[in-house]
């Protein structure tokens, strides 16, 4: 088991709990997708799982050991995290940004070694991004940055990836390419935890899904059991059609309510 969450609860300062009693386990090769409406606590939970936030109750265990016992560098060798809307403001080249993923393996006073550069270049190559390795990172499009940042966390050689809405800036083609990359990484034994607003992506890529709402997981399990019209309605408060388009692909189509009227005051 790579990660276990035991009865996790979290509150910002003295406010009410954002979530309570969250439990799950993640093994090698698992792809765990967390769905749920805006503001329900997905990002907050992901930040508890990689040690950025400390839960006010419960424990996060990494390979059986409490996350509190790990240093930041030790966590970085095990977990690669891509936050939502990551920004690198200095004028670094793409290759430099990917090389930053090697930081947990390089002493503060040392420069990256040939091996680190090779690992960074391979990460870019695996994602089909070698052609922009000399470009300035800050000039890239949102989608290009997303893939370069993924190369950076892969250069960390982690066992677990935590991805906060990884497909949010990507066009249709790159969404599917990213899901295929996730499939491949999971086949190679990496575990992946991601949040998403696309139940279709959970169907096509994950083997574990949770729907987060009202401070807890309203359901957790395999996608076919969890992603039901009933659960989607509970989560998002609208009707959603589930359509099977092939043996292993289902899509979710939200339905506009014809009777809904909004009172707009201008
Ligand atoms: N630093 C903070 N201080 C206080 N409250 C916060 C902070 N960050 C987030 N929140 C609140 O915590 C709740 C959960 O936010 P979070 O970003 O975890 O939700 P989310 O499910 O990831 O949302 P989205 O799908 O919109 O990205 C929201 O009500 C948000 O306003």
From TrEMBL:
Keyword annotations for this protein?
ATP-binding, Nucleotide-binding, Transport
Q: Which SUPFAM superfamilies match?
A: P-loop containing nucleoside triphosphate hydrolases
CDD domains listed in its UniProt record: ABC_Iron-Siderophores_B12_Hemin
Kindly list the GO molecular function terms attached to this UniProt entry: ATP binding; ATP hydrolysis activity
Q: Which Gene3D superfamilies does this chain map to?
A: P-loop containing nucleotide triphosphate hydrolases (3.40.50.300)
Where do the ABC transporter domain residues begin and end?
3-239
| The keyword Transport appears for this protein | yes
Q: Does the keyword Amino-acid biosynthesis apply?
A: no
Classify the source by domain of life.
Archaea
Q: Which PANTHER family match?
A: IRON COMPOUNDS ABC TRANSPORTER, ATP-BINDING PROTEIN, METAL TRANSPORT SYSTEM ATP-BINDING PROTEIN TM_0124-RELATED
| Annotated protein name in UniProt | Putative ABC transporter ATP-binding protein
Record organism:
Methanobrevibacter cuticularis
């Amino acid at each position: 088991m790579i990660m276990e969450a035991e009865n996790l609860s979290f509150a910002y300062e003295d406010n009410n709990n954002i979530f309570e009693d969250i439990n799950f386990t993640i093994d090698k090769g698992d792809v765990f997708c967390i769905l749920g409406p805006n503001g329900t606590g997905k990002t907050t939970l992901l930040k508890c799982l990689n040690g950025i936030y400390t839960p006010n109750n419960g424990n996060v265990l990494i390979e059986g050991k409490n996350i509190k016992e790990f240093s930041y560098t030790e966590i970085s060798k095990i977990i690669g995290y891509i936050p939502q809307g990551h920004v690198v403001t200095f004028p670094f080249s793409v290759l430099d940004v990917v090389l930053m993923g090697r930081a947990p393996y390089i002493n503060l006073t040392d420069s990256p070694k040939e091996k680190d550069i090779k690992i960074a270049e391979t990460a870019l190559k695996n994602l089909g991004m070698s052609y922009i390795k000399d470009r300035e990172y800050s000039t890239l499009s949102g989608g290009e940055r997303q893939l370069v940042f993924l190369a950076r966390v892969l250069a960390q050689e982690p066992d677990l990836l935590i991805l906060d809405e990884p497909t949010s800036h990507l066009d249709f083609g790159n969404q599917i390419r990213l899901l295929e990359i996730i499939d491949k990484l999971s086949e190679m034994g990496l575990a992946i935890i991601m949040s998403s607003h696309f139940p279709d992506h959970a169907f096509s890529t994950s083997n574990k899904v949770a729907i987060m709402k009202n401070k807890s997981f309203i359901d957790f399990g395999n996608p076919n059991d969890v992603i039901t019209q009933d659960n989607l309605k509970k989560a998002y408060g609208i009707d959603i059609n589930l359509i099977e388009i092939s043996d292993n692909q289902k899509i979710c189509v939200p339905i506009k309510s014809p009777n809904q009227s909004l009172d707009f005051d201008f």
